[in-house]
Amino acid sequence: MRPVIYFVILFFFVSTQSYSKEKLRVYVPYLCPLVCDEASEGKKGYVIDIINEVFIPFNIDVDFQFMSWQQALEQSHQGNNDAVIGIFKMQPQEESEWSQLGIKVNIYKKLIYPKQPIFYWNEACFYSLSSAQWQYRSDHDLKGKRLGTISGYSYTSLDTFLASHPQQDLRLSGSNTYARQFKRLLNQEIDILVANRVMADVVLKKMIAQKLVLDKQIAFKGCYPNSDSRAAFLSFSAANPRSKEYATLFDLALTQLRNTGKLANILAPYQLNDWKKLDK
Length: 280
Fold this sequence. Notes:
The strands form 2 sheets. The protein has a 5-stranded mixed beta sheet, with helices on both faces. The chain has a 5-stranded mixed beta sheet with strand order 7-6-8-5-9. The protein has helices spanning 3-16, 38-41, 46-55, 69-77, 95-100, 105-110, 159-164, 177-186, 197-209, 243-260, 262-267; strands spanning 22-28, 60-66, 83-87, 119-121, 125-129, 147-150, 169-172, 192-195, 218-223, 230-236. The protein is built from 11 helices and 10 strands. The protein folds into 2 domains: 3-120 and 230-270, 3-Layer(aba) Sandwich (D-Maltodextrin-Binding Protein, domain 2), CATH 3.40.190.10; 123-223, D-Maltodextrin-Binding Protein, domain 2 (3-Layer(aba) Sandwich).
């Protein structure tokens, strides 16, 4: 997108809003490097950095509040927050499976999405105790295993298996779900943790540093086929009349951050690369 067009559209956005400062309430889960504990890790998280860079220049303060995805979506539906990070766009063929998994599909249907994702997930990877003689190769390896998952969340291509084996799907809600699931794994309350690999590795590394887990006590055991590279979005509440404008602003500002190299600078401290090539 040419800079002139970008600034013309953004001038229109700014000229149509009130002169008073706005506040955008964004609910986020703690999942470093997306959302980090700045006090202990020295970084806010690259998703936090991107959202601030998008909205603050336009007199929109961002109020980040921490809670689980399931709680955040319910609050969004009720109009108690304005946006939630890390949300998939539900496809029509997924509605039945998601319903069986306890995901409130009526809320997903009403969310307002930008055109551009804020990151991509590699969602269904497996962790077990290193001492377990187990490795994922096919669905046969999942037979009879207690699978630790997060309430209200989709695991992409693994959803079909989870929906047809509800007795094996042990969901956990609330905050710090990855750390709590690793503890359940150590206590042998579950056999396998199903997780996003990037997020799980960050949490596991932190737990090892805190001596909550012994080094090499828990091991990565493979990923479910076709479970990677699904776009996740900063979704906006339909209860906020400005949500469509916020979604448009996000798309325009993210494109500008990418084209000017600022997005690469945001991602660099997290040792991450842009998920999309520079727009031409």
